[in-house]
Amino acid sequence: MNSIKHVAIIMDGNGRWGTKHKKSRNLGHKEGLKTVEKVIKATIKNKIKYLTLYAFSTENWKRPKKEINFLFNLLETFLKSKISDLNKQKIKLKIIGKKRFPKKINSLLYKSEKDTFKNKKLQINLALNYGSKSELAYSFNQIIKNKKKANEKNISKYLFTQNIPDPDLLIRTGDTQRLSNFLLWQIAYSEIFFEKKLWPDFNEKDYYKIIKKYKNIKRNFGNI
Ligand code: IPE
Ligand code: IPE
Ligand code: MG
Q1: Is 175 considered catalytic here?
Q2: How do residues 91-139 score in pLDDT, each as one tens digit?
């Protein structure tokens, strides 16, 4: 049976959930946060050490300002009210993506990272203003700057995910089969699960089902 160290999730389908329920897209985002909490709990229960959540992509800036503002307000409220709880649960929070936000959001993110830095139970990598292509370009530039060789080891070393094992599995909810600029380098050998359910409808049972399937996959890594 395969072990799991790292699960990565593209949490897609919030907007459609809101519309489907004849409410706003933003209500879907709010509802999606409940799934985040459920999935964190289930991840700890399964003794998984890393959970990477795609929350906002470099392309998501194209959305209406009203939706973007709502998302960042939601993030702010969430962190302010939950960070001490995350800390108690021994969760370490790391932001992957460029911290180019309004000052109050940036400071909150830095503070949340600092406050939880020593925790070892579960590391949550929150992908915010994250884009895999920009991350790779950043890594290559660091290599040039430091006059290093552009080999696999060095490329990985300068990514935001440095020192984090590559995801064993990637889940995308929302019935869409694409990667949307997420962890392109890191998922070279991940097992990929596309889930029909919209993110707010995704639950522990669905998550366990995927984990169970994953555990029984024959992973070859090129071998036979
Ligand atoms: C994913 O849900 C969350 C973010 C991108 C912030 P969407 O907002 O993309 O939901 P759909 O895909 O439009 O339903
Ligand atoms: C991917 O979802 C980004 C996040 C879940 C944060 P999108 O909804 O932005 O992806 P596309 O644009 O439909 O590919
Ligand atoms: Mg979407």
Answers
A1: no
A2: 999 999 999 999 999 999 999 999 999 999 999 999 999 999 999 999 9
* Catalytic residue flag (residue 60): yes
- DSSP string spanning the chain? ----SEEEEE---HHHHHHHTTS-HHHHHHHHHHHHHHHHHHHHHTT--EEEEEEEEGGGGGS-HHHHHHHHHHHHHHHHHHHHHHHHTTEEEEEES---S-HHHHHHHHHHHHHTTT--SEEEEEEEEE-HHHHHHHHHHHHHHTT----HHHHHHTSTTTTSPPPSEEEE-SS----TTSSTTTTTT-EEEE--S-GGG--HHHHHHHHHHHHTS---TT--
> pLDDT digit string (tens) for 32-66?
999 999 999 999 999 999 999 999 999 999 999 99
User: Which atom, in ligand 1's list, is nearest to the CA of 13?
Assistant: 14
Determine which residue's CA is closest to atom 13 belonging to ligand 2: 180
